[in-house]
Amino acid sequence: MRTFKYSVVILKDMTEKRKRHFNVGETKSKILEFILDTNKPVAEPEVRAYLSENFEEISQSTINKHLNYLKGCNCIEKVYPIEKSRFSYWDVENFEQLKSIRSEFKTVKLNDYEKAIRIILNQNSYDITNLDGFFTHLKLLLSDSFFNACLDTSMKTLFTRIGHVYNYKNAYLIRAVTTRVNESHIAFITRYPNIEISIHDFWDILNSIVNKYKEISSNEVFMEVLKEKIHYTVKETYSEAMDDDLEFYEKIRLSVELLWVFTKDYNETFFSLLFESYYFQDVLLGIASKEEIDFALETKANHDEYRNARDLKKDTKDIFRKCVLSDLKQASMVMHAKRQPLIFDENIFENQDDVYTALKKHFNTQILKLSEEIS
Predict the structure, then answer these.
(1) CATH number reported for the structural domain that contains residue 57 in this entry
(2) Residue 2 — pLDDT band, cuts 50, 70, 90?
(3) Reading across the β-sheet that carries 89-91, which strands appear in turn?
(4) Domain of residue 360, residue span
(5) Predicted model pTM
(6) Which of 144, 193, 227, 342 could potentially form a cystine with 239 if both were Cys, beta carbons 3.0 to 4.6 Å apart?
(7) Pick from 204, 225, 260: which residue ends a domain?
(8) Same domain assignment for residues 255 and 329
(9) Cβ-defined contacts of 78-81 (< 8 Å, 24+)
(10) Is the bond preceding residue 45 a cis peptide, omega within 30 degrees?
């Protein structure tokens, strides 16, 4: 009897080690994670094989029940492969499904999965093979707050809002630009009282000139451009009534130059500032990972170095290229640790130096083009 009893205990222990029941809701979460972690739609037998690896045997009917529940919650959808198959295939494919997963399954950390990040990028028209899309992928991967913000609204909306943050961080420059442009407007309407042009229209004119400021080589050219813009705005031929006092136009040109400096700085930094804002949230909430902290600190140092060199009027082309390559170095560390984004052969993730070399080669043409544009 004792031997029989002992054998039963041994058999029970072995069974408990071999099998484990899912907790409530865990099966559905595991199915979602498996689908998100697979770079293609998954067949139902694949789901069953995945669940059976570490957990108690689960029937196909039970799996079907879970899959249909997830479909009913708008977390997944049934897709149809190009080649005919007797199996059903499932996938997560759109923005609304990501929102449903976040709402229904809070333990699923969506930005751990490249499939989820790609959906966000596609929703905002980003291409992973371009520098802006590539770095956006990394920032979505690293920052929970940034990912959730992009899931709640469009990046276009976030870009319009970040302007207020930029103005706050550069309040003195904003005040200087505003004061100079307003003074130029007062000087203009005082000199030409018959030309009725509002401060709003005056700002619009100077902003339109800013976009072509590098092409304006002299006060003479600037004067002609300004006359043309004003003529177009007021819909009257006032150009003949405006004199050719170059000293007067030079003062307005200095306003445009200051506005150009402000616009250039904003265009070069606003996206980094957007990530920085959500990085602060992650830090304050205590959810920033070591990878996020390291990436944020190192890329911030790279960009500060570039801005300082630019302000000192050094060779911005070489400094910009160095900045981007330093950012790619940080990116290679993230890719080595996280094994995404998958823009090269998956085997490349094994060696960080190989990742960095591949990134430099892939983005070289884009870096050269951008360095020419900002110089």
Answers:
(1) 1.10.10.10
(2) very low
(3) 42-43, 89-91, 77-79
(4) 157-170+262-374
(5) 0.84
(6) 227
(7) 260
(8) no
(9) 79/41, 81/41
(10) no
